[in-house]
Structures are given as C-alpha cells and as structure tokens.
Amino acid sequence: MAEDTSLRRQWLLLRSLISRRYGMTVKEMAAATGVTEKTIRRDLETFRSVGFSLEETIGEFGRKTWRIKGDGSQPSLTFTFEEAAALEFARHRLDSLAGTPFYEAAQNAQRKIRSSLSENVLEYLARFSGFFHQTNPGLANYSAKSEIFESLMIGIEDGKAVHILYQSERATEPAYRDVYPLGLILHKEWYYLIALDPQEDKVKHYKLDRIEEVEVSPFPLRRPEGFSLSEHLSSSFGIYKTDSNPITIKIRFARSVARYVQESKRHETQKLTKQRDGSVIAEFKLSSTEEIRGWVLSFGGKAVVLEPISFRRQLAEELAMLVRDYNSHNEITSRSQTKSS
C-alpha cells in the first residue's frame, strides 16, 4: 500500500512540475500532496536519479523553485531496428485506447519514433509487418467517451469523488450516483471503473460503456485501507467478483484439448495435473463460477467439472435445457418440412 501511495503522489507531482511554467517550491509541493518537505526532497532526488531533467531556479529573496523542463532539452532517443520493429508491431495494441487521453499521446510518440528512422527502414518495416496480423474480436471504441475517460482519470489522480450517470445492465434507465474512483481495469478490450460505493460501503465495478456522464466533485477520495486493484481481483476469473470466500474448482479436460489448456496460465491459482490417459485436471480457487462457466462450456464435451458438485449440477441442468431446446427446434423443423412436402 505504501508503494502504491508513493507512486500516486509522484505521478501527481510530476504532472505539476511539468505544467507549472514558473515551477514550485518544496513547501508548495508538500502542501499539494499532503506530505512533509523531507518526503518531497526524496521524491525530487528520485526524479533526478531516473533521468528527469529537473531545473532549480533561485528567485527573489532566495525563493527556490523546481520544474521539469519540457522544451525539448531531454536527450534525443535512438532505436535499434529490433526495437523500432517491436514498437511498430505493438502499436495495434493501442487500438483499445482509442478515445482515451493516452491514445493521442501514444500516437504522437509513435510519430516521433517513426521520424527517427530512415525512409529505407520505414519501407522495410512496412513490408516486414505484413507477416504479422492481430485479430480484434469485439474491439471496443471509446472515441465518444473521451471526456468521460478524462474526468475519471482526474478523479482518480486527484483523489476526488465523482458523480456519475450510469445505466446498469438490469436497469431500465440510467441513474445518478456518487462513487469514489479507485482505478480502471482493461479486460477483454473493455474498460471498467473500480469504485467504492459509499452508500453500500462496497467496491463495485462499472463498465465504462454504460457511464453517460461524469462530474468530478470537490470531496476527497476515501480509499479503503490496503486496497490494490490486483488483490481486489485475485479471486476472480476476469472482472466478475463476489464477496464470497474462494472455493476450489476442478475441471477435467480431455486429452484432445489438454495441450491447449497447458499452453497458458489463466489465473494465479491455476494448478494443472496430468493424468495417465493424457487428460488434464485443472484446479482454480475462485469466489465465483460466473466467468469460468462460459470458458468451460466453450470446450463442449471435452471439459467436465469435477468439483464443486453444485457447479457441476448447474452446468448439467444448463446443458440438459440446451439439448431440449435443440430437440424442440428439430421437431418444429421436421414438421414444417413434412407440411411443405
């Protein structure tokens, strides 16, 4: 938690030092971030040690101010071909940032990188990149949400509560609510706001697509003690989370898909055990079966839940209903064909 707090403070401090034309005194920085002047001096030393161009100015009456120069005085960047190629191929991953404050900055950075390369290298990269392709199934587009995204970032960075108009999945119309924004999570190309609902005193997830308005309030953020995004989702198979204690889920995967399952790690608690017949038993500790359910069903009959029994029965009932629906459709189709003939 201490490290997370330091990073947030230093991020806010960096933004202030870059944007303030005449800089800030150590006393002003301490007041703005709520820490001691001694802590600020340590932060300044950290910035200098990692390469930020800190400028110290002594004005009237010995008033000393600091700022980070943004006038191009930073050393120019050069890239090897391998580095430039890696960044060129990775730029398509930025498509999920479209409409966010980061997207234009990322595009500007990409243009600067390309400007440092010769025409021959750019031409070669264009031909070389044709050997790689990335699919984007269901890629979200946040171009119409740029102001909402930026307001949420301000609330998170400045530690302020936000007033949002949110259309939940089950609600018939949007409703206003006040929340304390804790962070944003990118999950399967969609962004989610993780925020504390003060009325229920509970951390909730709000899909960014369903947020229609955001207003940053003057009220300070009440951050739960020891909260971190990674720990918050540690018992989730994705973005869905409940307050239930984690349970052990065991799934047997047939030999024909065992290698595919073993090729990637889908959760930090994942444990794979090879069986003599070539199958694999996967074990997870999760607080909900909601998201892993769809993953198991995607394997059809090649994945069978072993534990817990309640989850096994749930899937069995769902599959039985699916079979009944298919059989019913087949009967209707057969009668229709008989009449038409």
Keywords:
SH3 type barrels; four-stranded antiparallel sheet; 4 domains; 23% strand; alpha+beta; 341 residues; 41% helix
Q: Return the domain count.
A: 4
What level of helicity do the residues show? 40-55%
Oligomer state equals single chain
- Low-confidence runs: none
- Count of DSSP-assigned helices: 11
Structural class: alpha+beta
Our measurement of the CA-to-CA distance between the termini, rounded to an integer number of angstroms, reads 73 Å
What would your notes on this structure say?
The chain is α+β, with helices and mostly antiparallel strands and 341 residues long. The protein folds into 4 domains: 67 residues, Arc Repressor Mutant, subunit A, CATH 1.10.10; 51 residues; 79 residues, SH3 type barrels (Roll), CATH 2.30.30; 109 residues, no CATH class. 41% of the residues lie in helices and 23% in strands. It contains 11 helices and 11 strands. Strands 6-5-4-3-7 form a 5-stranded antiparallel beta sheet, covered by helices on one side. A 4-stranded antiparallel beta sheet has the order 9-10-8-11. A two-stranded antiparallel ribbon has the order 1-2. α2 crosses α3. It is globular. 15% of the residues are buried. The mean pLDDT is 83.
